Amino acid sequence: MGRIVLAGIELYARHGVHAEEEKLGARFVVDVEMEVAFEGKPDAIGSTVDYGAVFRFVQKLATEQRFYLIEALADHLADAILERFGEIRTLVVRVHKPHAPLPGVVRDVFVETTRAR
């Protein structure tokens, strides 16, 4: 098994429980860590997961539907990625909300979910 990581997919979306979050939107960051059986296979895109396709899929999914909770967004992404990309054996998805509306300074808030076949 080998590991492929898409770290720091930045996107603009309207997730959150507050009306202002729907109206104004915010920056979100998604990390996707995938374990794939590619070692010893040919030097061809068909012998691994196309991480460009995963990137585009994450961007599309994370911006086409609004979620109140980043937990729900992370679950949605993880389930859809695993369903779409059969080459992935295990998957970790993190959704960061770096500018979460909190009553103080916090560098980052994120949730993490894991899936395996």
Automatic annotation (TrEMBL):
Cite the Gene3D superfamilies for this sequence.
Answer: 3.30.1130.10
Care to name a GO molecular-function term for this sequence? dihydroneopterin aldolase activity
EC number(s) on file: 4.1.2.25
Its protein name is: 7,8-dihydroneopterin aldolase
One GO location term (cellular component): cytoplasm
Which species does the entry assign this protein to? Answer: Calidithermus terrae
Its UniProt pathway annotation is: Cofactor biosynthesis; tetrahydrofolate biosynthesis; 2-amino-4-hydroxy-6-hydroxymethyl-7,8-dihydropteridine diphosphate from 7,8-dihydroneopterin triphosphate: step 3/4
Q: Does the keyword Lyase apply?
A: yes
Q: What does this protein do?
A: Catalyzes the conversion of 7,8-dihydroneopterin to 6-hydroxymethyl-7,8-dihydropterin.
Q: Which PANTHER family match?
A: DIHYDRONEOPTERIN ALDOLASE 1-RELATED
